[in-house]
What does this fold into?
Amino acid sequence: MNILLITLDQFRGDALGAAGHPVVKTPNLDRLAREGLRLSRHYAQAAPCGPGRASLYTGLYQTTHRVVANGTPLDQRFDNIAKAARRAGYRPTLFGYTDQAIDPRLTDGPRDPRLKSYEEVLPGFDVGLHLPMGEPAPWLTWLRGKGHSIADNPHVALETEPARPAEHSMAAFVTDEMIAWLGRQGRPWFAHLSHLRPHPPYAAAGHFAELYDPGEMPAPISRGETSHPLHAGLLRSPAMAAPRDAAAMARLQAQYFGMISEVDFQLGRLWAALEARGDWNNTLIVVTADHGEQLGDHGLLGKGGFFESSYHILGLIRDPRPGAVSGAVLDRFSENIDLFPTICEAMGLEVPAQCDGLPLTPFLRGEAPPWWRDAAHWEWDWRSFYLRDGPHPWPWDRRLERQSLAVRRGPDDVYVHFADETALAFNLAVDPSWRTPLSDPARMLKVAQALLTWRARHADRTLTGMLVENGGIGRWPPMPPGWDASS
It folds into this structure.
């Protein structure tokens, strides 16, 4: 069986036709929902891109993998989805980017070129096309070959996509490259297609920029009362504050939805290529995002903070195996950390001991597992904003460790705990928009205890399930790839 893992960067969980969105059209993603399993309460575990992807690729909460910013190194000791695919006999191949910074202990020091950018490739992947947002040179060269005058600034190239035909977009280019690669495959394959869109800049390609009328955009969740200093600070941030002008906000929404429809169109081209090859019914397809997009909710844009819009993402799985569900919707809480274990089981591998996530395999068969989580969890750490301020003498200066939060989102309430000892709680049963505080002290204590229990149950378990006794008892952790026991 082939494995196709697709990430659509910054894709909100509600921006899907199959989810009932009142405006955006996504016929090709909707087809997956009709033929597979839609995860309606699916959440990323961290933001921005690097931390969110670290959880996706390793099956770990941020509290364990500790990738907290774009540029935080991913510890070499962790297993990941590409390494697992190699153990299963695949040659996992990347089209796009993974945004995982190298462990500095593997480099030759500050002059090592791999330390110049966090946009490195996750260890284990072959590269079909490496196209990071910061240096998309292959796409820019391709555009120039099409007769376009393109600046070397990648942001400008993306910002001007509305002025060029949609056939010349970054999403079209990546899709072309992957379809060409498919034509050369003669054995079961594993591919990771990592699309940038609908990530900003908010500028849809070609005619997709005109697809949606700004006058028909749904109103974002209003900001309400600013309930914490962090929210107040984000509202002052040029990068995260949404336009106060309603017309400007509507234009931005229209571009965001245009980008979604454009990348959906490119996926339709890929579906057609899979069908033409005879691979459609022999390929497990998993589609998700690294994090969400606030899109004006609570006065904010982008990703970060604690509100749900940054972390509620799309999740679709089409399993071609006999007995798999079709047109099913999972309304229990699922998380991106569940996808690594799910793909491991699909490849015939044991779920790695490190994983915090759980395989979704029973749900794909229409069964309910004996236990499942009753809440979703995510974290945000903003210490990277302080790292550039100057040295923080160790061990006495611990200000960096105070710049983080953890969230427990249950069916009826939310608890947000900050590392500076403050906290927020919202009553979702009364108001699902996260603007009504939870005022019952007993209930507040209960959700706070639940978050503490979650943290206690998800400490690193790589070696904790065995004892060095009588030759080793308990669970033996698998040897890392390339491990030499004699060294």
User: Anything to note?
Assistant: The longest strand covers residues 328-335. Confidence is low (pLDDT under 50) at residues 482-487.
